[in-house]
Structure formats: structure tokens, C-alpha cells
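Sat 14:20. Reprocessing the chain from the morning session after the first attempt stalled halfway. Input below, unchanged.
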Amino acid sequence: MKRKLWLLVFLGPILFSAWVLWLSNQDLLPQVLAIHWGVSGKVDGFASVSEHLIWSNVALVLGSSLVAVSALLPKIHPAMRRLLLGLTGYFALFIYGLMIYVIAAQIGLTDASSVRLGLEILWFILPVLLVTPMMLSMPKVSLSDKLRIQLWGVTFLGLDYQEIDQIQASEVKPSQFGGLGIRFAKGKVAFIPSKGPAIEITTKAGEVILVRSNQVQNLLAAITPKI
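Finished this time. C-alpha cells:
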């Protein structure tokens, strides 16, 4: 399993490089590629094919490696693993999509300076812009057949009540986790859009989940009888 995952980490960049090199050898790409655009959509950065492949492969390997590490982390709750895989998988897809788009936009051109980014680039940028405020919003704890932690109505983590060992009130600070948003540290996951009161959930497997909330006492009263 581990070997297959690490093979996949490098397979994507290898296939991407082979595609770009084939296009270049067929004279289907400019000798100097556009690699950066200003806010007006005009090219303001260039690199040779080989230079571009170096930096793009670093980004692709990084994105794929994050997914592999999320899948291979030992002693992590399945719900936390799914959360990590979703976040890192989204990041990897964003990197791959952007790199492929940059090359595809230049196929058949001889002068890369004429390349302009169209509105279709928003398909890559808007999701990233939306994820940031989503992660910084106050999480909602939904109590039905299981405990669900949601942001903007999207379930990021779900737990069966039988998996919960104990729940208590706590305080969270961004400095404890290196910043705001969804944070992981030493077996803990924190939904922390701001400093303040939170519920602290400890699973029977030993993981700790901290959820910032202004309704801590109400949540404790509702969840405690279910566990």
C-alpha cells in the first residue's frame, strides 16, 4: 500500500513532464513559456521549458505527497483521515489543474507574450478564494444520527456517538495551533475561526477534536446523554 501510494506521488509529475516534453519536441509550444500573469491578464513572467518543469514538478510532487502522507498517517481516526484527504486532495487537484491549464493555453503558439488568461481561470481560483472564508467561519455542530461538524452546510467531520469517550468545555487560542482555520497538531484537530470557548471531544481512540462555539453549554447538555 505504501509503495503504491509513493509511486502515484511521482507518476503524476512524470506523466505531466512527458506530455510537456512531447509537445515541446513537436514544436507545439513556444521556446520560452509564459509562467506568470499580472492582474490585467498580461504576461509578466517567462521561463524555458526545462525551468518551468523544475518548478512545476516541485509543486506537483508537494501536492501529491500531502495526499500520500494523509493516507499513511498512523493511529488517526477514520473521520479525521477523510477530512485530511479531502483538504489535501483538493489542494493537489488545484495544483494539477492549474499546471495543465498553463501549458494547454500555449499549445500551438510561437510567442508566449500573446497568451492572456481568460475567465476560465476563475474555475481554478474561485474555489480557493471560497475555501479560505469557509474555513474561517464559525463551525456548526449538527446533532442527528451522528455528530457532524459543518462549515457552510458542508460536513467536514462526522462521529458516531458510540465513538465519543468524553466531552467537555474548553478554550482555544490560534497561537496553540499556529493560526486560524482547520488545524492539526499532535493528534488534535481544531476548528478555530477565532479565540474563545469551544467543546473538546475526546474519542475512544484517543483523538481530541476542538470546535469553537458560542453555544458550548447547550451542546454539552445535548450531546452528553447520547454518549
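The CA atoms of residues 138 and 154 lie 12 Å apart.
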